[in-house]
Design brief:
This protein is of the alpha/beta class and 198 residues long. The chain has helices at 3-15, 25-31, 48-55, 67-72, 110-119, 151-158, and strands at residues 38-42, 59-64, 78-82, 94-100, 121-132, 165-171, 174-178, 184-196. It has six helices and eight strands; from the N terminus they run ααβαβαββαβαβββ. It is globular. Pfam families: Methyltransf_23.
Amino acid sequence: MTTDATLFWDEVHAARPSADPRPNARLEEIVSELPPGDALDLGCGNGGDARWLAGRGWTVTATDISAVAVDRLSGTRITAVRHDLRVSFPAGEFDLVTAHYLQTPFELDRTTVLRTAAHALRPGGRLLVVDHGSSAPWSWNQDPDARFRSPAQIAADLALDPAGWTVERADSPTRIATGPNGQTAEVVDHVLLIRRAA
């Protein structure tokens, strides 16, 4: 494991309170109507998504590079495991794999990670990828020249066989987000939803 990336994310999570976090808005919007099954939460962070899924009957494997994040996350129907996705990927097959804001200042071959996630789906399962499409005022990435790949570009990068996987959604909606100190701003989410053929 690269120490710098591990230390960075350990420090990020150690600085955050361990209070019960909210789930991501796009997860609630998209997954609410799906029947529960086995879910994999990639880059689980504070655990809001994993807890929300478990509360709706999903059996969740939650993974993060940060031992701080993983050690804080426990609960009924949740197994938290530490993985550096550059070198390892959780075992198993899933009905849902989520990757919310799996973006990092460190090197990560996201295309390979997301392609592996697509192949970890059971027939009929879905891969939900939600990325930043803009920088919030509180984001760690304030590079004014930052470019955010569109959902269609990410789907094309995955090069999944259309006979086996279908893009169900690829769009860039806006929403009002709330930052860590209560400030609000309009942000863009890049949403990609892919379904494996039944």
